[in-house]
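Write out this protein's structure.
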Amino acid sequence: MRRVSLDSSVIAAAGYDPGTAVLEIEFTTGDVYRYFAVPPSVYRGLRNAASAGRFFSERIRDVYPSQHIGW
């Protein structure tokens, strides 16, 4: 999945597949997670948020099922 860089101290990059509603996030630690059943509006919100880390904490983490896919 193609990811785009984010200006964040927590999230290095994020990518989204609208066909499967999968959001992929690469953290600055190098960990990569996939989040499932994520609406496109949530991905747009993450990309446009003043603080991607805060948006992630409030709107994505613990809201959508996830899978750690590596470093």
